[in-house]
Specification:
The chain is an alpha+beta fold and 162 residues long. Helices cover 41% and strands 15% of the residues. The chain has helices at 8-57, 59-65, 98-107; strands spanning 75-81, 128-133, 139-144, 150-154. Helix 1 packs antiparallel against helix 3 and helix 2 packs across helix 3 (98-107).
Length: 162
Amino acid sequence: MKNKGFSLVELIIVIAIMAILAAAIAPALIRYIDKSRRSDDVASAETINTATQAALANEEAYDEIQPAMDPSKTVTLAKATCGSAFSNTGSGVSNSAKTFISEINSSCGGASPKLKYKKGFNSKKPDTWVIGVNEAGKPVVWLGSGAATQWELQPDICKEYK
């Protein structure tokens, strides 16, 4: 008797085994992809933080925002919708802070990074990069979705974003 190939039952069993393996692997793969996207956003925040530190090292740019820096609270210096250029819509920052904003935009390539991780948030999805200075005078970068909801990504990552 000649063997002419696989029987239909054997093929169905192999397909069923492959389906079970795919179902077992899919959740882990999705978790790894989400973790990768979150780490990309944290790396983007680190780039923005480095750009802010470089801008603060520029004496002219620092002098422009110095009046807005309050040692008793965290101050917002600039904001940008993901993918657009930063602007000085921060609280207390005058419209003449052009050197500071242009330093940040040039260091970021003219536009803020696009957001990679977009799920896992309730109804408030982040759409804005926010640059600020904390009480210690250190740059802080958040992802925000309105005035009240913000997730810190630099220098420390908030628990909600991890």
